[in-house]
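FAQ: What does a ligand-bound record look like?

Like this one, built around NAP:
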Amino acid sequence: MILVTGATGFIGTNLMCALAEKDVYPVATYRHESNKDKIAALFISKFSDGKERFDKIIWRKVDLRNFPSLNEAFEGITHVYHCAAFISMAFRDSQKLLEINQKGTAYIVDLCLKNNIEKLLYVSSIASLGTDPNLNTIDENTPWDNNVDKTPYAYSKYGAEMEVWRANQEGLDVAIVNPGIVLGPNSPIEKTFNRVKNGLRFYTPGRSGYVWIDDVVFVMIKLMESKIKAERFALVAENWSGKSVIQAVLKACNKNDKIIKASKGLLYCLWVFEHFIQLLGLRKRFFTKALISTLFDKRTVNGEKIKSYIDFEYTSIAKSLENTLNPKSI
Ligand SMILES: NC(=O)c1ccc[n+]([C@@H]2O[C@H](COP(=O)([O-])OP(=O)(O)OC[C@H]3O[C@@H](n4cnc5c(N)ncnc54)[C@H](OP(=O)(O)O)[C@@H]3O)[C@@H](O)[C@H]2O)c1
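The answer part, i.e. the structure of the complex:
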């Protein structure tokens, strides 16, 4: 039996739907009863018998910080998709990020070993790829450099990956995907798109790797079903600048507004201001120097490796953005 952690999240929900298309109904973890509704709604919109299919899911209530709840969720499990994580770029969330993402993954891999799980598919991130200042393009082989400061989220996902590799050394079959920013209806990045729709007109000149949700889920299932193991795959279709993405969002909502480049100096002023506010005890800070560097980083991520392992082509990012911003367009 398959276990999907984070089944109520963006990637988890889409994975559950893709598995249901193959008539596979895993054990799914949830935290809040109301979040199951997201899967119910997706099933009902995708399948004529969506309600019956939804009822076949076995739900287990789990918090990654609560080992006993995880232990119970593993009963009868043979394969694990670990999608659950906390996503935040805020410095104030550092501790929570490590607890949920790194320590929670350590619990998961220990339980995989204890229960002789046949394979673990871990959803990591391009945030945990290495950074070689001398390279313009990074990939799965770029070494992690401890001298380069990273966001708290990146440290937590890198730490989680280390736990997965540790379990691999101890005999667990694993495969890891490292997606870029995942596009699709209800994706976490939609919050940023909504801010743009509501008047945010600043951009930073850095580039990011993007990928379409169906491509991520397709690769995850293929990797789980294959004999491929002890490999990680950056999943990036194309690298787009912040400016191009904001322009695409504005075009989709028929706005032709001018957008303004935010300077590094401005963001450093905000960083200093936040320190001051935090010292006064008014608000814990959001910005880190590492986040500012990321927003100005023009390096690209190469997501081609996966194509030499499975028969696969990425969906274009123009099409993915169109379908995220206007879900009925394709
Ligand atoms: N979205 C992206 O662009 C992107 C890009 C690269 C990598 N990733 C990775 O992909 C994975 C899934 O991301 P997503 O986009 O689906 O995020 P999401 O929509 O925020 O979903 C996160 C899931 O994790 C669950 N979760 C959070 N804290 C938990 C805890 N303490 N215990 C148990 N479950 C917990 C959430 O449950 P609730 O529903 O109860 O909150 C939710 O089901 C994450 O590992 C993320 O790092 C995402």
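Follow-up question: can I read anything off the structure? Yes, for example: Residues 8 and 81 are 13 Å apart (CA to CA).
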